[in-house]
Amino acid sequence: MPAPQGRVHRHIRAAFVSDLHLGARHSQPEAFLAWLETVQPDSLYLVGDIIDGWQLRRGFRWSPVCSDVLTRLSELVRHGTRVFYTPGNHDSFLRSDNFVRSLSRQLYGIQIADEFHCETADGRRLMVTHGDLFDSVETGAQWLSKLTSVVYDPLLGTNRLISRIRCRADRSPYAMCARIKRRVKQMVRFISHYEERLLHHAQQHDCDGVICGHVHTPSIVRRGALTYYNTGDWVENCTALVESHDGGFSLEYYYSGDRGSADLPALADEMADDALCSH
After folding, report:
1. Amino acid 86: pLDDT
2. CATH superfamily of 10-277
3. What angle do CA 69, 174, 167 make, to 5 degrees?
4. 204: Cα separation from own chain's centroid
5. Which of 1-15, 53-67, 98-112, 207-221 has the highest mean pLDDT?
């Protein structure tokens, strides 16, 4: 179906986004909405932590633009985009059968499941899941994850203040925190064998790789015959994983000064870093 009148949309085969954390103080729904209004994907995968249910007890901040994001998602569904939603640890309420049973596992045309298997344009089969269920730190000591979230929030506020002083419109206001979180998450991934467990699960289900979120670290990494894709997030990095109609995958950064756009060959250094952290 045609896109709505008055907008210019880039037609893409599939888009994968995660960790919007709508309702959290430092989420960036304005940036996500601006990006989402430029694309018309055949399929859109919401890879968990889209709504931040943890913030309900700590001051939920649902701004009008958060509602605008949901309106845009509904608009995409009406114009033919297939939308898939795999919940994460922050929106795990969507895993409750009681919550979604009356909706027949669909919410306004959005399909909900813990994982999906998608076929790429070049014939590969990829597992799509948030990833928290494969993080032994998250599943075994969620209290530690929640405590880290509370401690991290003031750091995000400080980073935003520094960014305002520096006036870098082409950088995420949380770019410094993104670098810090990347190092912390590397330790988490090392301890929990996060990537290894995800890829093993994907292989058991005859998949050629996995697309996930959760650790807020955008990356595309080859592991032998398998490929690990991480969508990143829309708090610190503001990234999306995009599949073109020829089957190519790339990471798109909303803030041009952070990275611009990256594809598989351009990630050699990151692949080497991640390889060291996974063994």
Report:
1. 96
2. Metallo-dependent phosphatases (3.60.21.10)
3. 100
4. 23
5. 207-221
Helix axes 142-166, 175-192, angle to 10 degrees: 160
| Cα 82–chain centre separation | 17
- Whole-angstrom Cα distance, residue 159 to residue 178? 10
CA distances from 115 to 74, 79, 148, 272, 275 (A): 21, 24, 26, 28, 25
Q: Residue 2 has what pLDDT?
A: 43
pLDDT in the model for residue 250: 95
Mean per-residue pLDDT over the chain, rounded: 77
Query: What are phi and psi for residue 83, nearest 5 degrees?
Result: -115, 130
Helix ranges restricted to H, 17-168: 29-36, 64-78, 97-100, 136-140, 142-166
| Domain residue limits, the chain | 10-277
Residue 101 identity (one-letter amino acid): R
Q: Could you tell me which of 48, 50, 42 has the C-alpha nearest to residue 15?
A: 42
**What are 92's two structure tokens?**
């795990």
The token pair that represents 267 in the structure block: 């990630």
Q: With bands split at pLDDT 50, 70 and 90, how would you rate the model's confidence at 161?
A: very low
pLDDT tens per residue, range 264-274: 433 433 433 44
Classify each residue of 145-170 as buried b or exposed e, where b means 16 or more C-beta atoms within 10 Å of its C-beta.
Answer: bbeebeebeeebeebbeebeeeeeee
Contacts of 72 (CB under 8 A, 6+ apart): 33, 36, 37
- Whether residue 189 is predicted with pLDDT greater than 80 in this model: the reply is no
Question: Which residues are registered as beta bridge partners of 153?
Answer: none
CA nearest neighbour of 15 among 197, 182, 258, 251 = 251
